[in-house]
Amino acid sequence: MRTNVLRAATALAVATLGLAGCGGTSSDAATPAPAPSATAVAATLTIKDPWVKAGPAGEMTAAFGTLVNDTGADVTITGAESPASPLELHEMTMKDGKMVMRPKDGGFVVKSQGTHELTPGGDHLMLMKPAEAIEPGDELSFTLQLAGGATVPFTAIAKPYAGAGESYDPGHSMAPMGSTAP
């Protein structure tokens, strides 16, 4: 009889171990596993050297940097948010022989193991109407929205920028040092 009990106990132990290797309890089977791709994408998309063009309250300005995709798949940025201002993804393109800015249909695609530049005169994050002035040295927070639902937060530092014929400070001379230009 002792042998029969030992055999039954051994059979029960083997069956239990076999079931444990097949996925656990029935409640585990009802709970879907989180999608690793969205988490993995957000963890491996980074923004290198982010910055924002300083400017007055209410006037459009933009955020720039280099989007870096260290994943094995293309990543699409579908939108962006900031407490500083409503945002749009913008591109520069030729229209009727002139360079014009417009919203970027389909978002920014960052190729697998690649980068995508956000630059003045190119693709950028457009702050449509900042509620307050953005002063040099200010830190602004942003959140990129990715296709698939993942988000990527980052912070950018505001800098003065006088490129493309823009003037950061009216009355500030952009003349070279030593020049007598007003």
Mean pLDDT: 76
Report the radius of gyration as a whole number of Å.
Answer: 27 Å
**What ranges have pLDDT less than 50 throughout 5 or more consecutive residues?**
1-29, 32-36, 165-182
CATH superfamily of the domain at 36-159: PCu(A)C copper chaperone
By CATH reckoning, the class of the domain at 36-159 would read: Mainly Beta
Portion of residues in beta strands equals 35-45%
Oligomer class: single chain
The CATH architecture of the domain at 36-159 is Sandwich
Would you tell me the structural class of the helices and strands? alpha+beta
Helix content: 10-25%
CATH topology of the domain at 36-159: Immunoglobulin-like
Instruction: Give the number of DSSP strands.
Output: 10
End-to-end Cα distance, whole Å, is 109 Å
Name the overall outline: globular
Number of helices: 3
Strand-helix topology:
Blueprint: H1 2-20, H2 26-30, H3 36-44, E1 45-53, E2 61-69, E3 75-81, E4 87-95, E5 98-103, E6 108-110, E7 115-118, E8 124-127, E9 139-146, E10 151-159
Parallel strand pairs: 1-10
Antiparallel strand pairs: 1-2, 2-7, 2-8, 3-6, 3-9, 4-5, 4-8, 9-10
Question: How is this structure best described in words?
Answer:
The protein is of the alpha+beta class and 182 residues long. The chain has a domain of 124 residues: PCu(A)C copper chaperone (Immunoglobulin-like, Sandwich), CATH 2.60.40. Helices cover 18% and strands 37% of the residues. It is built from 3 helices and 10 strands, in the order H-H-H-E-E-E-E-E-E-E-E-E-E. Strands 1, 2, 3, 4, 5, 6, 7, 8, 9 and 10 form a 10-stranded mixed beta sheet that branches. Strand 9 and strand 10 form a beta hairpin. The longest helix has 19 residues. The chain is globular, with a radius of gyration of 27 Å. The protein starts with a helix and ends in a 23-residue tail after the last strand. The N terminus and C terminus are likely disordered.
